[in-house]
Amino acid sequence: FFVPELIEKKRNGGKLSKDEIRFMIEGYVKGEIPDYQMAALLMAVYFRGMDEEEVTELTLSMARSGEMVDLSAIEGIKVDKHSSGGIADTTTLVLIPLAASVGVKVAKLSGRGLGHTGGTIDKLESIPGFKTELSKEEFIRIINQIGAAIAGQSKDLVPADKMLYALRDVTATVDSIPLIASSIMSKKIAGGADKIILDVKFGRGAFMKKYGDAVELAKTMVKIGNLAGKPTVAYVTDMDQPLGMAIGNALEIIEAAEVLKGKGHEDLLNLSLEFGAEMMALSGIENDRKRAKEKLNESIKSGKAIEKFKEIIKSQGGNPKVVEDYSLLPQARFREEVTAPHDGWIESIDALRLGLAAMKLGAGRQKKEDKIDHSVGIWLGGKVGDWVEKGKPLAVVYANDEGKLGWALEEVREAFRLSPEKVEKRKLIWARIT
Ligand code: URA
Ligand code: CA
């Protein structure tokens, strides 16, 4: 193939063949195709899009660029869950022990947070001793023993995505549906799970700001998964306000533990029950959604769910007592409330603004090399549709840097809008796509 001809073909709206796509990805990873040619192709894809066959081939070529994880040594059907990224999105931390406590095999490969969205690996590392770098043998052994394990993605997983993402980042080609879909799905496919659940977020705190775009992204990823032989279900869910009450690493461990003890906020619980039921259906454990949710609720009530969380923590070297004694988690020096200036209903909470505020307090990274402060963050006092009285907390800010504290308090204040009139709660689950 002659690279300029392939670029021209896509530029003119043509369709690339499987061989042509594979040639471009393999050549780029080997360093035979330079950045400037790949950048031109990405821009052509940005404007011209890709059809189902093209985006599936792109995804598979990317997935095969590095290690393909083999989980066949784990008995049963392995289900992976992935969120497109959100604020106070503690679902994965709740879901892994919850699903494992009813018999689902959970092999979770997670990333670190970047920018305003948190990463499960960072959150877990706020637990003293918790190890997220597991060898393949350890990972498989733990799942076979207790039903779940969570490990950081190895450096060899989908090198093509690392290269392409870095190039997209500097060429204004990140927000393209085929490029996002192939980026996410290549990592899921290389990760080795049999079936996949996707949580595609939309709203102020999400990649996709508009509902219609989130639906299109979800449909594209479901198509890719199914064509690649990995049955995939996608949910489109609200990320206009934060999902849970906690934003920040140790704080989210506390919130996950609260939900697993039956004391958490209803939104995070409901989303976890929905995904838990979906995982039970996909693994062939329980097809009836209502009965599945009953089993999950029963697991919370009986204490099985929180026990499973402790088991997971212990098996990965962490101190399981943190789920009973939260003072064993990293503590911030300053803890200050933002109070309601007057009575009212919470009308909106700007998820992105809170996510960025938490990041700048130290809960997240602006650059890959940044170190995280596990103790800092924000705990919400209410969500959209809740009534608050003057002087009651809208949120509590946890900080270690007195200089940043004042700034963060102001950001949090600005993120809340109160209304004198009653406000409806926001709908959480908008679509389920199969
Ligand atoms: N998440 C990814 O992994 N890739 C993208 O391109 C966007 C979100
Ligand atoms: Ca309140």
Automatic annotation (TrEMBL):
Q: Name one GO biological process term.
A: pyrimidine nucleobase metabolic process
Q: Which GO terms describe its cellular component?
A: cytosol
**Per the UniProt record, which EC number(s) apply here?**
2.4.2.2
Q: Which InterPro entries match?
A: Glycosyl_Trfase_fam3, Glycosyl_Trfase_fam3_N_dom, Glycosyl_Trfase_fam3_N_dom_sf, Nuc_phospho_transferase, PYNP-like_C_sf, PYNP_C, Pyrmidine_PPas_bac/euk, Pyrmidine_PPase_CS
Recorded catalytic activity of this chain's protein: thymidine + phosphate = 2-deoxy-alpha-D-ribose 1-phosphate + thymine; uridine + phosphate = alpha-D-ribose 1-phosphate + uracil; 2'-deoxyuridine + phosphate = 2-deoxy-alpha-D-ribose 1-phosphate + uracil
UniProt keywords (A-Z) are: Glycosyltransferase, Transferase
Alphabetized Pfam families for the sequence: Glycos_trans_3N, Glycos_transf_3, PYNP_C
Could you describe the subunit structure of this protein? Homodimer.
Q: What does this protein do?
A: Catalyzes phosphorolysis of the pyrimidine nucleosides uridine, thymidine and 2'-deoxyuridine with the formation of the corresponding pyrimidine base and ribose-1-phosphate.
> What is this protein's name?
Pyrimidine-nucleoside phosphorylase
> What is the species of this protein?
Caldanaerovirga acetigignens
